[in-house]
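Hi,

I'm pasting everything inline rather than attaching a file, because the server keeps stripping attachments. The sequence lines come first, and each chain or strand is labelled.
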Amino acid sequence: MDKGKIDKIIEKYPSDPSSLIQVLLEIQRENHWLPKEAIERVSEKLQVPLNRIQHIATFYKAFSLVPKGRHEIHVCVGTACHVRGAQRVLDRVQDLTGISPGETDLDMKFSLETVNCLGCCALGPVMVVDGEYHGKMAPAKSEEVLKDVE
Amino acid sequence: MPRINSAVELEKFRKDLLSKRNPNKPCITLCSGTACHATQSEKVAAAIEQEIEKQGLKADVDFRRTGCHGFCEKGPIVVIYPEEICYLQVTAEDIPEIASQTLKEKKVVDRLLYVDPTTGEKATLESDIPFYKNQERLVFHFNTRIDPKSIEDYLAIGGYQALAKALFEMTPEQVIAEVKAANLRGRGGAGFPAGIKWEAARKTPGELKYVIVNCDEGDPGAYMDRSLMEGNPHTVLEGLMIGAYAIGAHEGYVYIRQEYPLAVENLTIALAQAEEYGLLGEKILGSGFDFNVKVHRGAGAFVCGEETSLLMSLEGKPGEPRARPPYPAVKGLWGKPTNINNVETWANVPLIINGGASAFSSIGTEGSKGTKIFSLVGKVNNTGLVEVPMGVTLRDIIYKVGGGIPGGKRFKAVQTGGPSGGCIPEKYLDIKVDFDELKKVGAIMGSGGMIVMDEDTCMVDVAKYFLNFLTGESCGKCSPCREGIRQMLKILTKISEGKGREGDIELLEELGQTTRDASLCALGGTAPNPVLNTIRYFRDEYEAHIKEKRCPAYVCKELVSYYIAPDKCQACLSCLRKCPAEAIAGGKNQIHVIDQEKCIKCGTCFEVCPSRFRAVKKISGEPVPPPIPEEARRIVRKSKGKEK
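And the predicted assembly:
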């Protein structure tokens, strides 16, 4: 992530420590993870010590300190999806990708995450691949979905 | 657009708007909430625009994209005004027919109407569908009528009149008295009376005060706040402004989850529009009242729904709670008096100011007034958002509005209040739902999540599920919460794996009580609820897991085996081909047999076995019958000719 882009994001917010989370969120959205150089730049500009940024980046779930794969899989494990069998879907997706939630595979193809509710409970269990929603999932169906992802 | 500078101008502007709008002009509306978005409402919208153009209807028909209609089970929903013809599960392919038949010819497209699953009767109007008929939509009503991105739509339905009334006809004290008289209780969880909170913030001396909208809706399975914020952001803003006026605050924040991008978008648009119209900023509506609002996106932490954590997060710090008192009304954001209310609570305020406290409090029960929006999800036919008066029974919500349990299954429990709540068994289905009654049976209202569970839901698994969620969300600051939840989860996991011991239930109860009593904030204080409450009502299920190593609902993987009944198997190869572990032996005309050693218990065979055979069985608490010998596996079929 180049410095100019990072600076541009930082400049959008008042330069004081309370902007920290909003700035990090935007970098995360832009870049899909928080690289070291971005964190250092934010620390310098907003006058927040690095260890506090580390604390924030690990406390909140939206942030990642490691790069993400080309495709992001989100399996909803909200209560409504859970009672409809989301766990079995998740088990199967883990099997298929070889990674656990929070991980990215070595080829950088998939990153797997669980989410606690996407608010489309009528479709549960739900799996989202690169922003596309797949509803009424079952273990076998998840395989069909992932098969087509290159 | 000129600024609106007085209450008179506001009224005049509204009348001008209405005079320009012909109520009889056909208008096609499309539900564009997140849930419908997930069911491809974007494509439907594109098709509507294209078709209106193509069929030359541009001058005669309006197209409006509204917020969530609540009947998410049947989305995307299209309603055509002025007749209010309602079409469900509309796809882009249906649009040409809707345009040519309904918009042009005024004919109803029969196949897209709601069909009552029991009587087979069709409903043409949205208001005739039982799901809607049995609700009372006061707060949620306008979601289906207005485009959330248009302030003019909101003004046309009388928006910001409550604000004008408060600013020009009432003193701040009168506003507080009205909200107190209405007995508006916080819709976010605890049910604390909003008026009392406001009064405390007003009475605390200080120049600088803050008001905050809590839209950090974290309970899994609850999405009413999101739908309100997406579908009618102005009403939340109007409520917030009235509150700010009453308290004496000139700055407000909306704390909103970043997982709700559409809500953030619609709110941001609403703020810009309100400012443009002179409804936000300096000298609002020409009065002496100044007010500004900032949006703060949350970064994904359940605990931030708790007000003191939310304040920490707003200050740019990790969202760890602090002890109360001092309450935020005394010492809140940056140490200043602060009032925090949930989205739905704020959205009720304009109703109270417009209609008066007595009208508001004529609905509901003794201790809980007004309506409540629930998100009815899980094992229920009509998943969706449901607004009912306080005091309606659970049975009415689940059966009359929700349409009962799908697949002819038996109701087991309904979980309310998210991870802090509890599971209510069948024997209490007739209790009247309000803040106090739910508490009596060991559950809570919470933010309004209502998850229906049927006989296929294991209560030990549900308790484990919530604790698993809470271990991830506990901020770790205080040890009773951090360690207590973790230890309870360990015990529950062992029970679900068939490694439970005598005395585990008692140990869970003891741990639960300690965690409840000693935790710093409400997250830990309520975390044991799902455990204590399921033990209270479903102790027999816990005992079955511990003593018989049996999961009565066939959910806990370690306690369940899959078995193919040889007399039912028709050797159709479905399960054999789909089994990811290659654990099924057999072939054409060879009865299939599961190798229990290889089986990973994913349940795929159970799922794919054709329903006319139902050969795959789940077994728990007893040994799996030995596989039938090789020589007995051959199926000899009678030829069809001989049968005749």
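The mean pLDDT of chain B is 93.

If the labels don't parse on your end, tell me and I'll reformat.
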